[in-house]
Design a protein that fits this description.
Elements: E1 5-8, H1 14-27, H2 34-47, E2 51-56, E3 62-73, E4 78-88, H3 97-111, E5 117-118, H4 126-134
Parallel strand pairs: 4-5
Antiparallel strand pairs: 1-2, 2-3, 3-4
């Protein structure tokens, strides 16, 4: 297995990030839309609304990404990261890229004074759950997660 390294993505990485983000969305049963993926990621990076970590092999090929959103925990009165997106290209799965990204996210969170990281995953995504738990993530059995879709159209 070749060494995998990580780095923080920049706007120069948009082409590869958009492709991976589009594939990530398709994994969650969204229609392919590379233009939407590119716009979304451009906005996040330009506005400084998220941090994107890339996993790269020795040849500098991007194997996957992790997107972290800085937010806060009101109860703890501390900043946290929401690890919302983690995706490894199917050809690079089982290479260790996912684990490397999770560990890099943890280091980044510590370096940036975050109290913790939170994430959610599909109940059926057993491989991801096993990976998280092997790295010390603890499943929340106390709180339920709820969502409510809001159908509004922004005014232009």
């Amino acid at each position: 297995m070749s060494p995998i390294r990580t780095r923080i993505a920049t706007l120069d990485d948009l082409d590869v990030i958009a492709m991976l983000f589009d594939a990530y969305r398709q994994f969650y049963e969204q229609a392919p839309d590379l233009a939407l993926a590119r716009r979304f990621m451009t906005d996040r990076l330009q506005r400084g609304e998220s941090v994107v970590l890339l996993a790269l092999n020795e040849a500098d090929q991007v194997l996957g990404f992790c997107q972290l959103y800085p937010t806060f925990c009101s109860v703890e009165a501390k900043p946290i990261y929401s690890l919302y997106d983690l995706f490894v290209d199917p050809a690079a799965r089982r290479s260790g890229a996912g684990k490397v990204l999770l560990l890099a996210a943890e280091r980044l969170a510590a370096d940036n004074g975050m109290a913790r990281m939170d994430l959610t995953t599909a109940r059926t995504n057993k491989p991801a759950q096993a990976a998280y738990e092997s790295l010390g993530w603890v499943r929340d059995d106390i709180f339920f997660a709820y969502s409510k879709f809001i159908g509004f159209t922004p005014k232009r």
